Amino acid sequence: GDDMTYPDDVDVAIVGSGPTGAAYARILTERAPSARIAVFEAGPVLTDPPGMHVKNIADDAERIAAQRRSEGLRPHTDSTAGEYADPARRVVRPGTFLLESGYQVDGEDGLPALAMSTNVGGMGAHWTGACPRPGDAERIDFLPDLDELLDEAERLLSVDKHPFAGAPYTDVVRDRLAAEFDPGRAADRRVQPMPLAVHRRDDGALIWSGPDVVFGDVTRDNPNFSLYAESPVKRVLIEDGKAVGVHVNGVDVRARYVVVACDALRTPQLLFASGVRLPALGRYLNDQPQTVFAIRLRDVREPAADTGDATEIVGQSGVGWVPYTDEHPFHGQVMQLDASPIPLVSDDEPALGTIVGLGWFCGKDLQASDRIEFDEDTTDDYGMPKPTIHYRLTPRDHETLARARTAILRAATALGEHIGTDPFVLSPGASLHYQGTTRMGPVDDGTSVCGPNSEVWGVDGLYVAGNNVIPTPIACNPTLTSVALAVTGARNIAAHLTTPTAAATTGR
Ligand code: FAD
Question: What is the number of structural domains in the chain?
Answer without folding.
Answer: 1
